[in-house]
Amino acid sequence: MPYSHHSHSGQFCGHAKDTLEEVVQAAITKGFERFALTEHIPRPIEDFYPEEQNEHTEESLAKLFEAFYIEAQRLRNVYADKIQILIGFESEWIRPSTLQIIQGILAKHTFDFFIGSIHHTHTIPIDFNREMYEQAREKAGGTDARLFEDYFDSQFDMLLALKPPVVGHFDLIRLASDHRDASFKDMTSVWDKIHRNLEFIASYSGRLELNTSGLRKGLAEPYPCLAICQMFMRLGGAFVLSDDSHGTDQVATNYARLLAFVQNAGIKEIHYVDRAGLRCDDRFPSAGFSSIQTSSLAALPFWNNIQ
C-alpha cells in the first residue's frame, strides 16, 4: 500500500535509467498503491545539467517534458486497475526566469501536485558533484555556513512564490558538504533560516517529503535529517514518503530504513497525495491529501517484500 511521491526515468531524465513504463511496472511489483511520476521541468540552456549539454537544445528539452506528460497519462490509464498513478513534476529554482517556466507548465497542464525543489545555489548545481558544490561555496563566501544560508534563502524565495504542495529533499545542501551527516547544529543563523522556512511551509499546509535518496548516496539519515523533522513536527507539519528513484533498481530502495526512521522520529502519521483525498489547493482539482497512522502503515504486508 505505501506510496512514493518522487521518481524519474531514463526516458525523460538524462541521469536516470529505464523507461517510464518499466519504472511503473517495478512500482507495481514492489506493491505500491500510489506512485508519482515527477520528471524535471525544462530549463534554459545555461541551466542544462552536464549530461544534457550534448544531447538537447532548449526546444528538445521542452518537447521531452511534453512527451513525458502524454506518456504519464497513458500509463495512468493502462495500469489503472493495478496502481494509482499520480502525475506531477519536480520544479527547479535557479534564476528569475524559472518562475515563468513553472507558471507556464501549471497553466498548460493539469497535475495532481508538484514537488518544489532546490538543486542550485548561485545558479550552480550543489548536488551533482563535489567540484560544483565547491564552486557554489566559493561564490557564497567560502564556507559551508554561508552556502547553507544562501541555499535556505533561495528555498524561501521558492516557497513564497510557489507554495509547493510537497517540498523536495529539504536539506539537499548537506549532501556534498563537509557537514553531510547533519553536523551543522552549531550554525545558528542557518537554523534560524530553517525554522523560518519550515514555519512557512506549515502555514500553508505544505508537506515535507521523507526522501530515501540520501540513504542511497551514503548519508546516515534521509532528507530531511532527524533534527529538521523534529522541528517541523513541533510546528504541526506533515510528511510524505518518497524514494526519488532514478530507475527500476531504486524503486522502494531503503524503504525499510525509512520506516525505522519514521518510527524513531516519533512521526505518528504519514500523508499521501490521493485522487480521492481532501482538496486543499485550487491549482490541483484532481487530487488532494489523505493520511494513514504510522502504526497502521507499519502493519501492511508491503514491508515483507522490500528491503
Automatic annotation (TrEMBL):
Organism: Ampelomyces quisqualis (Powdery mildew agent)
UniProt name for this protein: Histidinol-phosphatase
Keywords: Amino-acid biosynthesis, Histidine biosynthesis, Hydrolase
Domain of life, per lineage: Eukaryota
GO cellular component: cytoplasm
InterPro entries: Histidinol_P_phosphatase_HisJ (IPR010140), PHP_dom (IPR004013), Pol/histidinol_Pase-like (IPR016195)
PHP domain location: 5-213
Record family assignment: Belongs to the PHP hydrolase family. HisK subfamily.
Keyword Hydrolase: yes
GO MF, one annotated term: histidinol-phosphatase activity
